[in-house]
Each structure stands twice: as structure tokens, then as C-alpha cells.
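Deliverable D2.4 — example input (C-alpha cells):
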């Protein structure tokens, strides 16, 4: 750790590492909330990977098209359990403030795709949403994003989340937020949610398995798939000669097909 600090100080003094990256690096290396990331950060420092350190720590990842997405790894400008957790906590707080008097009962629906760690991130989101007192429904297997939009409306949920980075490279992942209409979060909700992130003092969490057993987190109803297909499928009959080309979308479309 001492050698790491010497390196960081030297890089900052020489201008190879920005002051903002320096400040964030020291926070992530010293504060208890970031302890789980220290081994990965140490590996980057030992490898003298200045480009990665600068890019990962110089800024906070921000809401873009309906949420956050980007490369996975340690740092405030990466997708990891901390940044996913901050987004989930911010969304939960915002829904409770702006989702109406019955927002907690309406709750948040959660889905995830087949990307690396998507299931882990989804369980983290569910644990945080439930800990904030919101009803929580989660798909127990990967689903395509349109089914999450459908599920939000079908359940009458206050909001929804999909863990996915859409068409981004395989190294990426993301947190996509949806409002009660099933559409992606846009202005002014997106700016308001990121404002919530900046003011977070604590990320509330409950244990996922315990919350499932206690009914605080509920598995998405088994009927949701059938309802989705019934509501969205092309009507085929003997009168129509239709050929279908199916793109597996990295496996996430398997249930729908």
C-alpha cells in the first residue's frame, strides 16, 4: 500500500494522473465502503496501467440513454457493484419521492440479460430496492429488454430496471432504468436520479436469499412470459406465408423464441 501511494503521488506530481483521479483513487483505496475493490485497483497500480486508472477514476459514470453503461471494473467511471448500487439506491429514493403515494406498493420490476455478472448485478439491485421498502419483482432467468417494459406495465410497477449494456462490447454492462409507462427514463427523471446519486450517504441492502424467503423480493410471476407472447407475437395463420429470421441476441432472446 505504501509503494502504491508513492506511485500515485509521483504520477500526480508529474501530471500523468489528474487531480480528480488522484482524489478518487485515494477514496477507493482507503474508505471501508470500497474495500472489495482494492485487489483489482492494486493490480492496475502494479501494472502501471495509467490509462486505465485515469479513465476509471477521473469522473463518475453518468446517466445517458436511460441509465448507465460502460466497461466493467473498479472505479467511479466503471460498472461495478458500487456504481450499480448507487444507481439502484438513487432510483429507489427517486421513486419514493416522485412515484406517488402508492409507489412503495407498486414497486420496481427487475430483469437482466446474459452478459457476464448481469445476474449478480440484478440480485444486488433487488436487495437494495427491497431494503428501501419497495415491492420488488425479479425475473429469475435472463429476459429480453422489451419483456421488462411489458412487465412494468403488466404489474403496474412504479419503475423497472434491466441489467444490460445493449449493443455495447462484451466487456461492458449497464443499468437501464424505466418509468411507470414502460419507457426508458428520460429528462427530467434522468437528471434528477443522477442528482440523487451525488447525495447518497448510504446504500441500503438486505440479504437477497433472506428477502426472497420473507417475500420482500418476489420472483416474477410465471404467467408473465405467456402474457408477453400473447400481447406482442405476430399473428400467424394458414393464410400467411411468413419466414422468420431469429437473432439470438447473445442468448437473451431464447425465452421469447
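Example output (designed residues):
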Amino acid at each position: 500500500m505504501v509503494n502504491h501511494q508513492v506511485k500515485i503521488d509521483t504520477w500526480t506530481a508529474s501530471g500523468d494522473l489528474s487531480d480528480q483521479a488522484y482524489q478518487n483513487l485515494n477514496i477507493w483505496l482507503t474508505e471501508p465502503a470500497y474495500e472489495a475493490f482494492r485487489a483489482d485497483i492494486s493490480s492496475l497500480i502494479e501494472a502501471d496501467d495509467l490509462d486505465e486508472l485515469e479513465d476509471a477514476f477521473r469522473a463518475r459514470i453518468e446517466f445517458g440513454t436511460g441509465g448507465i453503461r460502460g466497461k466493467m471494473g473498479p472505479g467511479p467511471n466503471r460498472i461495478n457493484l458500487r456504481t450499480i448500487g448507487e444507481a439502484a439506491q438513487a432510483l429507489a429514493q427517486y421513486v419514493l419521492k416522485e412515484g406517488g403515494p402508492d409507489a412503495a406498493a407498486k414497486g420496481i420490476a427487475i430483469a437482466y440479460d446474459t452478459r457476464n455478472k448481469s445476474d449478480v448485478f440484478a440480485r444486488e439491485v433487488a436487495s437494495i430496492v427491497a431494503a428501501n421498502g419497495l415491492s420488488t419483482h425479479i425475473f429469475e432467468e435472463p429476459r429480453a429488454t422489451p419483456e421488462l417494459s411489458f412487465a412494468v406495465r403488466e404489474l403496474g410497477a412504479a419503475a423497472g430496471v434491466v441489467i444490460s449494456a445493449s449493443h455495447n462490447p462484451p466487456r461492458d454492462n449497464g443499468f437501464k432504468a424505466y418509468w411507470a409507462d414502460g419507457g426508458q427514463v428520460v429528462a427530467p427523471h434522468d437528471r434528477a436520479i443522477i442528482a440523487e446519486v451525488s447525495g447518497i450517504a448510504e446504500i441500503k441492502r438486505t440479504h437477497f436469499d433472506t428477502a426472497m424467503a420473507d417475500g420482500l423480493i418476489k420472483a416474477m410471476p410465471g404467467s408473465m412470459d405467456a402474457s408477453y407472447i400473447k400481447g406482442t407475437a405476430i399473428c400467424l395463420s394458414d393464410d400467411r406465408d411468413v419466414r422468420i429470421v431469429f437473432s439470438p441476441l447473445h442468448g437473451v432472446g431464447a425465452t421469447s423464441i
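The chain is about 45% helix and 10% strand.
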